[in-house]
Design a protein that fits this description.
single chain, 240 residues, Rossmann fold, 33% helix, globular
């Protein structure tokens, strides 16, 4: 349902502990916001304000130090992502929560089409139908057909990013996290990506994104969360 709140972040803190110095370094402090279906929420702030840390905490790549991350599932259950078991997190990643990072991680020797279609394979979609959807998306992103059947390990940064994007959005996740999705792309391809993100919004996907270009933020964001770098108070615990 459009405008339905899908994600509530409440009082999120994330510290990284430096064992050699016996000190906690704050990365994100007292962060709270909501993300709604059919809207793009943008995280903005100076380097060190915790934008990527917040995305990784939601995806559970990082464990939070404090706070709660409430997610409403497709079955209308409210779960705290910070307290789920690992297998529950993996299930949600497979079905409902996507993450487009700045870097493509994939198995070597696996074809680009199969990498992009993998989320649909997990949904037990017919393999040929999944591959056809992958081809259509790669075509829309203008990735040359000669690259579709080979591994993207030797692709350029912009080519890898298009593969990463295609894999992240092909299943139209309920919640999509994006970390600098247009950073390696030229203006023409960036505009194509923004069109795809607009399509996802119209389908009711909730998007939480970090963009380096404030022009894109002003164009695409329905809500803007402004972050400031946390202050280290010098006592080894970080500023709360």
């Amino acid at each position: 349902m459009i405008n339905e709140i899908v994600l509530r972040v409440k009082g999120l803190h994330k510290n990284f502990f430096m064992h050699d110095q016996n000190k906690a370094i704050p990365s994100a402090s007292e962060v709270s916001f909501n993300v709604s279906a059919g809207k793009l929420t943008a995280l903005v702030g100076a380097t060190g304000s915790g934008k990527s840390t917040i995305l990784k905490s939601i995806y559970r790549t990082y464990l939070t130090t404090e706070g709660s991350i409430y997610y409403q599932t497709a079955q209308n259950q409210i779960v705290d992502l910070t307290r789920l078991e690992e297998h529950q997190v993996l299930e949600l990643r497979g079905r409902e929560i996507g993450f487009v990072t700045q870097f493509l991680h994939c198995l070597p020797r696996k074809s680009t089409i199969d990498i992009v279609a993998q989320p649909l394979y997990r949904e037990n979609l017919d393999k040929q139908d999944a591959r056809d959807k992958a081809k259509a998306l790669l075509s829309r992103l203008r990735l040359p057909k000669r690259l579709w059947s080979v591994s993207p390990t030797t692709f350029s940064g912009g080519e890898k990013q298009r593969v990463n994007l295609a894999r992240g959005i092909i299943s139209k996740p309920r919640l999509l996290l994006l970390d600098e999705p247009t950073a390696s792309l030229d203006p023409v391809i960036s505009d194509l990506v923004l069109e795809l993100l607009s399509d996802l919004k119209e389908c009711g996907c909730a998007l939480l994104a970090v963009f380096h270009d404030l022009g894109i933020v002003n164009k695409m964001a329905d809500d803007i969360i402004r972050l400031t770098p946390p202050v280290d108070n010098g006592n080894g615990q970080g500023d709360k």
